[in-house]
Design brief:
By secondary structure, the protein is α/β, with parallel strands linked by helices. The chain has helices at 23-34, 70-84, 101-114, 140-147, 181-186, 199-209, 238-256, 259-279, 284-295, and strands at residues 8-14, 42-48, 61-64, 89-94, 120-129, 132-135, 137-138, 164-166, 170-171, 178-180, 213-222. 39% of the residues lie in helices and 19% in strands.
Length: 303
């Protein structure tokens, strides 16, 4: 007999996209149709940050929040709902992440297997773009330190073969991560100061600080990064997002890093400014990195 409440509470955060056109919603729905036994184990919330309400399917729980307060507010609401539903795990999904039946089946199997192992705060897949595996990666501070080493001694990202419990400090993208509800409660939920960018980095850093670790799955999902494309530096809103990302980076290093890490951040920003000057048509992107390098200002207006 199926449990009275779902074991895994999933949330897809939408912005300026109809639920019926969201790749994540469509893929999740298709996976549940292919594996109907999963229906009793997952509950899906669509949290819509768009200005106007979308065409929500009655099949899923739907919440419209036109304030658009970013990911942290949406995820904290989902965490509250997961607690109310007595769900042990919270699954985060971007609106463009296409899950597969195999991924959801592995998620279910691992949550059952690892439920009693309180060391495990998160279960994550590998996310791959055209440029290779992009998540998991080292904790940002360690990534920064190794990024600035010459020659670089160790890899910065997970390998395709990586599987199991990780002793080294890793971070992962929000999307497709499965977080233990009790672990999130332990660290106080999703920090609102990282309302959009660096939220995942801050959460995984705090999980590790609380003595929790990550379990890396066999599954690999396709996940394209808009910031890895030339189009990002030409589309409307790209510059504001770039500035917000830089501000969040500095905020994170100020909160969790050392004075040396701030100098490394400055060096990274200077290098980033140079790279963008040669690669981005709009030189304001390069100027934003240059300004942040000299100001190291942790605050910036929201896009």
């Amino acid at each position: 007999m199926p449990p009275a409440s779902p074991q895994i509470y999933a949330v897809i955060v939408l912005y300026n996209q109809e639920p019926s056109k969201s790749q994540a919603v469509l893929a999740f729905t298709q996976a549940l149709q292919q594996g109907p036994a999963l229906n009793h184990r997952f509950r899906l919330l669509l949290y819509d940050n768009s200005a106007a309400a979308g065409d929500a399917e009655s099949l899923f729980e739907y919440r419209h929040d036109p304030r658009n307060e970013g990911l942290a507010t949406a995820y904290n609401y989902a965490l509250e709902r997961a607690i109310a539903e007595d769900s042990q795990w919270l699954l985060l999904l971007d609106q463009d992440t296409a899950v597969t039946l195999a991924y959801l089946q592995e998620v279910l199997a691992l949550t059952l297997t690892l439920d009693a192992d309180q060391r495990v705060g998160a279960i994550v897949p590998k996310l791959e773009s055209a440029k290779g595996i992009k998540s998991p990666t080292l904790d940002f501070l360690e990534w920064l330190r190794r990024q600035m080493q010459f020659p670089r001694k160790r890899a910065l990202f997970a390998t395709r073969e990586m599987y199991g419990l990780q002793e080294e400090q890793f971070s992962a993208f929000n999307s497709a991560s499965v977080l233990r509800v009790a672990a999130l409660q332990k660290i106080g939920g999703f920090p609102p100061e990282f309302w959009l960018d660096f939220l995942d980095i801050a959460v995984f850093h705090r999980l590790h600080g609380a003595g929790l670790t990550m379990f890396v799955m066999h599954s690999t999902l396709v996940h394209e990064l808009s910031m890895d494309t030339k189009e990002f530096y030409e589309k409307q809103g790209g510059l504001a997002r770039h500035r917000n990302l830089l501000a969040a980076m500095v905020r994170f290093v100020r909160m969790h890093g050392t004075p040396r890490d701030l100098w490394l951040t400055r060096a990274w920003l200077l290098r980033n400014a140079l790279n963008l000057f040669t690669s981005a048509r709009d030189k304001r992107f390069s100027l934003a990195s240059l300004q942040q390098a000299f100001k190291l200002n942790p605050e910036a207006p929201r896009p």
